Amino acid sequence: MTSPLWTEIRAEFPALARWVYLNTATYGQVPRRAAQAVARHFAHRDELACDDFLSWFDDADRLRGLLAKLIHCEADDIGFVSSAASALSFLLGGLRWRPGDRIVTLPDEFPNNIYHPALLAQSGVEMAEVPWERFFEAIDSRTRLVAMSTVNYMSGFRPPLREVSRFLRERGVLFYLDGTQSLGALDFDVREIQPDMLAVHGYKWLLAPNGAAFFYIHPRLRELLPPSVVGWRSHVDWRSVDHLHHGAPQFKSSAEKYEGGMLVFPVLYAMEESVRMILEIGPAVIEARVLGLAAYARERLRALGASFPEEHAGPAYRECFTSPIVAARFNAVDASVVARRLRERHVLLSARHGNLRVSTHFYNNEADVDCLERELRELLPAA
Question: Which of 126, 212, 265, 292 could pair with 271 as two cysteines, CB 3.0-4.6 Å apart?
């Protein structure tokens, strides 16, 4: 589909008929085709009484292939988890930490990247939140891991990942990325970034239900990181259910070895359809659409007197705020109150740390942004 018909695509999302939805950074809308895939799965279960359950894992492998195509890796690099937090916990719980090790992240990161690392203080691990302007100088010989998001959930800051990854690889520092706030909106090529782990919960920009999450894990890290979830699928020959192996498991070399047990098939069938839709439209086409709408929203909000985080960043890094998330601040305005008032008018966005957060996806259009502008003119005191 080289020239998407956005009106037809928009019809795939029933909630948009009733809501001006500018809140994908909180929840993405699930397309009809994804919901229908879940219904088909349950109907299939009834038809065959789950007798063919092993074939469901073949279907999950088909989704692995689609996700690998989306981020440009091998299917063996993809594992399924219930959330990005689970993937990060696999990593942090599987490494052997030494007193004096450091984990570095950026300020205002999503709590996943702060809470668990901070708990490692009991093992003598130091957690450091450093401003972007001092990030590179903060990486020292004790830095073991850097954890950050592809796009900051609060400000929309988009770090230059190629530069960061190259710098860390040269120093032997592990690089963990949370791609939940961008994958599905922004094109991503894991070959260019080469993180050690990329975790994505698909309920935002990938337009999947909660619980549909995956992680990419680089082969070099798979050699070092033991599975922390061990179950009946841990052994290499787990499909031989008539004679399951008893004894210590022999793990596969692929990312599947981290899954351990059953998968949450209904949400994975939904994710498959959403990912297929994104691939059909084209990730590059979607990125251009999303960033164009975000730029339009920024322009309309600026006309109402909003200020933006990039205005306080150094000139060299202002372009790092080109992302699907627009964080607008209005003087003497309680963003949480305004967000609630907008919700009463069926306009959905979020308030995050004093900012009104507008997040447009490819199913939005300029009319959505125009409606937001009209409503804000009525609500803001000096607009």
Answer: 212
